[in-house]
Amino acid sequence: MNLEKAARELASQKFSFMAAEEWTLNRQHPDAWKDFTGSWDRLATDNYMKEGDTYRQRRFCKYVVDPATMTFEELDDFVFHQTHAINSYAGGRTREFAPVEPQVRQNRVLREIIESCLKAILCSVAGHRTTWKVYVHQFRIHCSSALTGQPTPEGMHRDGHDFISMHLMNRVGIQGGISTLSDDEGRALKTVTLKNRMDGFLVNDRALRHGVSQITPTTAESGHRDMLVIDYNRESST
After folding, report:
1. Which pLDDT value is given to residue 236?
2. So what's the pLDDT on residue 89?
3. Phi, psi of 29 (to 5 degrees)
4. Cβ-based neighbour number of residue 180 at 10 Å
5. Mean pLDDT value across residues 52-72
6. pLDDT per residue as tens digits for the range 73-86
7. Residue of 191, 195, 197 whose CA lies nearest to 209
8. Could you count the other beta carbons within 10 Å of the beta carbon of residue 23?
9. How far apart (Å, rounded) are the C-alpha atoms in residues 67 and 73?
10. Which of 34, 80, 118, 154 lies 20 to 30 Å (CA to CA) from residue 86?
């Protein structure tokens, strides 16, 4: 990715759109890339959805990252909590998700994505010396003729972190899934359909809200939308 561009835009407009062509991970690490992207076929059911909302699969993990050395400490902790004020759909309770597979947690592609985004964040803000808590979410949203997929059932929202990055990993047989970033007054700052693998955003989550429209299949077959979402919090953050 273009670190200078991402850092500059993050500082000036609170987000940066990262186009797929800015990334070269598939060419640099073809075997790791194949293993990483293939792991979305092995996600687990999200057991914290409302009755009838059977469209979401996910996995989750946590790291502590020292930006001075870019060393990663894997945490044996797969619990995730958001307040109801942050997540009106599923917040206010402790959720423990299926862990990201061990080989995926150590995959060099995932770690280079985290490292690149964290470097851009560090260039845009003060606080380089602190360690960072980094949470990784793998999502697959399904849809079919009988089931509409909702990538963000809570609507326009923030996730409750310092920064987040969102990366499209795949779109198969779907329409919709339009991503929008807005300010607190509801003014849309960016509206785009992520179409290519690794299209995505780096966002100041304290400043902006985001949401994604529903997805439906383009044929009689089912479809799905795969996303990698990463949360970045200074170690002193709550």
Report:
1. 63
2. 80
3. -135, 70
4. 16
5. 95
6. 999 999 998 888 88
7. 191
8. 22
9. 12
10. 118
CA end-to-end distance (rounded Å), the chain: 29
Q: What torsion do the CA atoms of 210, 214, 218, 223 make, to the nearest 10 degrees?
A: 80
Secondary structure (DSSP) of 70-103: TEEEEES--EEEE-TTT-TTT-SEEEEPPBPPHH
Amino acid at 125: V
Q: What does residue 115 show for φ and ψ, rounded to 5 degrees?
A: -60, -45
In the chain, domain spans: 3-47+55-234
Indicate the residue type of 64: V
Say what the pTM is.
0.95
C-alpha to C-alpha distance for 180 and 152, rounded to whole angstroms: 11
The secondary structure element, H or E, covering residue 227 is strand 223-234
Do residues 55 and 102 make contact, with C-beta atoms less than 8 angstroms apart?
A: no
Closest CA to 73 of 133, 149, 25: 133
Considering only CA atoms, which of 185, 167, 175, 150 is closest in space to residue 49? 150
Q: Could you tell me the two tokens for 226? A: 């795969």
Name the amino acid, one letter, at 31: D
Is residue 55 a contact partner of residue 71, using CB atoms and an 8 Å limit? no
- Which run of H or of E encompasses 13? helix 3-13
Distance of CA 159 to CAs 20, 162, 164, Å? 23, 9, 8
pLDDT at residue 238, as a whole number? 40
Does residue 12 contact residue 200 with C-beta atoms inside 8 Å? no
Kindly state the tokens that stand for 33. Answer: 């890339």
CB 162 within 8 A of CB 177: no
CATH superfamily assigned to domain 3-47+55-234 = q2cbj1_9rhob like domain (2.60.120.620)
Pair of tokens at residue 140: 């697959």
